[in-house]
Amino acid sequence: MKLAFSTLGVPGLPVAEVVRLAADHGYQGVELRAHPEEPVHPALTALEREEVVAEFAKGGVEILTVAGYVRVAAEGEDEAVVAELASLVQLAHDLGASYVRVFPGGGDQDPEAADAAAARRLAAAAPHAADLGVRILLETHDSHRAGADVARVVGAVGHAQIGAIWDIMHTWLAGEEPETTHALLAPHLGYVQVKDIASAEDTEPLGLGEGVLPLAACLDTLDPESWVCWEYEKRWYPQASDLPGMLDAGRAYLLRLGAPKQ
Prior knowledge:
9 helices; 40% helix; alpha/beta; eight-stranded parallel beta barrel; single chain
């Protein structure tokens, strides 16, 4: 199992500090939240991108993903969405990241219309992503919370550069069993996002293993070489405990769950 954490857990932290945390606590990768309030985002200059790459290389840490905020199923014109996808793919390529994360964002639309919009836009972005060696991953989230929802869209695209992120919290909230989610997403799966919460009504982040999410059952379905990323949502819950002091315990917990069963 290869471990990463999301910078959603350390909002605004300088790149050098993010790299230091990952290296010091045994995480091989980082999911970079790509937002204007963060150090890494699509408006970075070529020189700034090179500096980010150099920092990660110096620490021996991989940039796993550029976690963008494109909502591929949202109402509106396709052109703007596809252009935003292209900018994220370019950023990921320049940083050496394997993946771009996107959201569904279908809102209250008819599900068939939301599916069609998402598939159409992802299909339009796929050739550019293929040219640059980047995969675009649709996360189980909001309007497409279940693995069945995301698999429906990604399957309709039918392109190797379009895949899925399995956010364990959202599939659990959708009432989908881990074995079912994995079976649906396995042909498309980029990696898994883990977290823990107290209940469906209280989603403030907890330390891994301290809540109700079926982390063991989910990780049991994965190949031993899979990437697993801890998405600790400190950005949305500023009162939550700070992530840096929890990284060692979180890593140890995940490695125990991922150890070969006797």
